[in-house]
């Protein structure tokens, strides 16, 4: 069998903690992502889900264990990777079009061609007509669209998403989830989508991986059999969705409670 | 309510709303013009009161030999601009000082931005060099003007050198802070998008630090003029600093004031130019004016 696209084998990440100790963010993570697969990672808030993404992206080196992309240990940023951050990471001094054109420009594509590629993606994410706007002139949802286009213009084989829609209001979030599914369907990229919202995870993903409270490790892996293409608002109302939700929540609930007790003792 | 009053309301209400968009805009414009006029009117009045009382007091009470008075200063300015100064045309003096200030300003700014940005991104070098930079900054650098005259002579070079050391530190510290304050997320994003170290420096760090750098340029040009004038003061064959130092030597208080006024005007023009450049470079920023007031 060929190697999975992404594989974490006993991956562990430690940071120097406050007060001289060592903080283990993730411990012994094992999971794989196949090419073209949409995997959602859920877990209690602040458990270290984002850290997993930074290991795969190569932004942070793995402390122990292995993180492999295409069968090779991650050392630096692997090729063909895209990352959508939780906070806005678009450049405020560049227009929408120039922001989206950043990726091709960094990779040495000539200016005119980069702009043409960017214009195409700006159109796909539904921002046609806003090419010359600056980020501060856009709404939060529109800035997320810019970030999405900025990521996808590089045609990544792997897309990492770190709670990208958590700062949006509920309606905009659902709209963006639908948009994401629509746009993703046109690519053959694998996605790791980190969220603390189980509904969002089930509505979007092929698989839901559940993580424990900090230090995070994998404690459940569920296949989502809902048919595609999905409509995010409608799929939530189906029997199948609710059954899945119940099943996964059984596992997640204990972790959320554990995180809560831990937080409570820390506060006390 | 009687039918009659109903009728009245029906007639009067639309009348209140009858102001068209054009009329509203015209009204807002007129109000704006009025408030501008009020501001400038009061400014003119303040200047008139200040100069008038100075003139009056210097004419009847204190000795204009020491304190001078507006009419004498005006006479001196007129004399300089029509007949020239002891050291040649006034324009030559202005040009000399501005040339020194601008040259030193450009060199100092470029050096400050380059070194500040590089050190801001390199923790190691910043750590190594921090004590030296702090020590250099603590040196009373204006005194170097005398040293530079010994080194470079009475000409342009010594003044430019003085200006550079003054401007450099003003710009350096802001560029350094600006480069350090860059959002880590934005840099990570650029790295993922495929930016090399150099591309991150050029297209992420430098533009992010621009706000910091530009705000330092206002003070830096002030320093540039001070450096040029003090440099000339310490020894020169032409320039505004020489004019002032000569006026001091001949107990010509009006000459000192006249020199001050010329330098002030030059500084204001430079300030305005930097403001224009700033607005151009920072046109992506949310503008304060857009929030506006209700009309």
Structure overview:
The complex is a heterodimer of chains A (about 270) and B (about 300). Chain A has about 270 residues and is an alpha/beta fold. Chain A folds into 2 domains: about 1-80 and about 155-240 and about 250-270, P-loop containing nucleotide triphosphate hydrolases (Rossmann fold); about 85-155, no CATH class. Chain A is built from 9 helices and 10 strands. In chain A, strands 6-7-8-3-9-10 form a 6-stranded mixed β-sheet, with helices on both faces. A 4-stranded antiparallel β-sheet of chain A has the order 2-1-4-5. The mean pLDDT of chain A is about 90. With about 300 residues, chain B is mainly alpha-helical. Helices cover about 80% and strands about 0% of the residues of chain B. Chain B is flat. Chain B has helices at about 5-15, 20-60, 65, 70-85, 90-120, 125-140, 145-150, 155-180, 185-190, 195-235, 240-250, 255-280. The interface of A and B includes residues 103, 106, 107 and 150 of A.
Measured between the Cα atoms of the first and last residue of chain B, the distance is: 34 Å
Q: State the CATH class of the largest domain in chain B.
A: Mainly Alpha
How much helix, percentage-wise, in residues of chain B? Answer: over 70%
> What is the average of the pLDDT values of chain A?
89
Largest sheet of chain A: 6 strands, mixed
Round the mean pLDDT of chain B to the nearest integer and report it.
88
Class of the largest domain in chain A, according to the CATH hierarchy?
Alpha Beta
- Please give the share of residues in helix of chain A: 25-40%
Task: State the total count of DSSP E strands of chain A.
Answer: 10
Report the total helices of chain A.
Answer: 9
Radius of gyration of chain A: 19 Å
- Could you tell me the radius of gyration of chain B in angstroms? 28 Å
Instruction: Describe the oligomeric state of these chains in a short phrase.
Output: heterodimer
Q: If interface size is counted as residues with C-beta under 8 Å from the partner's C-beta, which chains form the largest one?
A: A-B, 26 and 22 residues
